[in-house]
Specification:
The chain has 9 helices and 7 strands, in the order H-H-E-E-E-H-H-H-H-E-E-E-H-E-H-H. By secondary structure, the protein is of the alpha/beta class. It has a single domain, classed as 3-Layer(aba) Sandwich (Uracil-DNA Glycosylase, subunit E), CATH 3.40.470. It has a 4-stranded antiparallel sheet with strand order 1-2-5-6, with no helix packed on it. The chain has a 3-stranded parallel sheet with strand order 4-3-7. A hairpin with a 2-residue loop joins strand 1 and strand 2. Helix 3 packs antiparallel against helix 4. The protein is globular and about 50 Å long. The two termini are 31 Å apart. This is Uracil-DNA glycosylase-like domain-containing protein.
Length: 249
């Protein structure tokens, strides 16, 4: 299984990370975790996006794991490793810990509830998708491993995905293969303009059902100052997509 081979290669490096919860970029943005390099673009390993929930009903897609997510995933993997967890357990627990970790998750949950995603699945809040009803959720990124440009989180714009063969391959081929692993109909939530562009391209190619994509859903980052305004502009449209999907569950 490809996931096991990939994770197992990095397990010794994960095991050697500092014991405390303080992991710095110097600990992981180095040759031990480096996957590929394309000019000033560097891709590093984190385990959480190797886990695929093939029974998901909601798929939330970011551009690439940021430093916060990478750190959370590696910390959880180290804990699991010390507890004697299996490969599959390490991947799943890393996913639970890292999926849009931090303030992004709180902003995301609030907007999902306002789209009435919780009602569609009979939940009190979309928060339960990250907790008790994690079986309904698949979080991922169009570029599944953390990408940094000059040690800063890649945002999808400098350079644009299409200008890098490395990023293009991950976004339009590896990501699509991942989506095809999901067995059921699902709602897809693209976060941010760069992700929306990729998803839109794939939908136009007939690879993803356009009517199940929540286009116009704002990026939940606290740095997105236009998040609330953008959401309110698209709220009714997003609610309509969710409601229509819920009628066929």
């Amino acid at each position: 299984m490809q996931n096991e081979i990939k994770l197992e290669h990095y397990l010794p490096y994960i095991d050697s990370l500092p014991e405390s919860k303080i992991i710095t970029k110097d600990d992981v943005l180095n040759s031990n975790f480096l996957i590929e390099k394309d000019n000033n673009i560097e891709m590093y390993y984190a385990p959480h996006n190797e886990y695929i929930n093939r029974d998901a009903k909601v798929v939330i897609v970011g551009i690439t794991p940021g430093w916060t997510q990478m750190k959370a995933a590696l910390l959880q993997a180290k804990i699991c490793l010390r507890e004697g967890a299996s490969t599959d357990q390490i991947l799943e627990q890393s996913k639970r810990a890292a999926g849009f970790a931090g303030t992004m998750r709180e902003n995301l949950i609030k907007m999902l509830d306002e789209c009435e995603m919780n009602k569609a699945f009979g939940l009190s809040s979309a928060r339960q998708l990250f907790e008790k009803h994690f079986n309904l959720l698949h979080t991922t990124s169009v570029i599944k491993y953390p990408v940094f440009v000059k040690e800063k989180n890649y945002t999808g714009h400098t350079p644009k995905i299409g200008r890098s063969p490395l990023l293009t391959n991950y976004a339009y081929h590896i990501f699509l293969h991942e989506l095809k692993e999901i067995k059921q109909d699902y709602l897809l939530v693209p976060l941010g303009k760069a992700v929306t562009e990729v998803i839109s391209d794939l939908a136009k190619q007939g690879e993803i059902p356009m009517e199940r994509c929540l286009f116009g859903f704002p990026h939940p980052s606290g740095a997105n100052g236009h998040r609330r305004k953008q959401f309110m502009q698209n709220k009714h449209q997003l609610q309509t997509i969710v409601k229509k999907f819920s009628q066929h569950i």
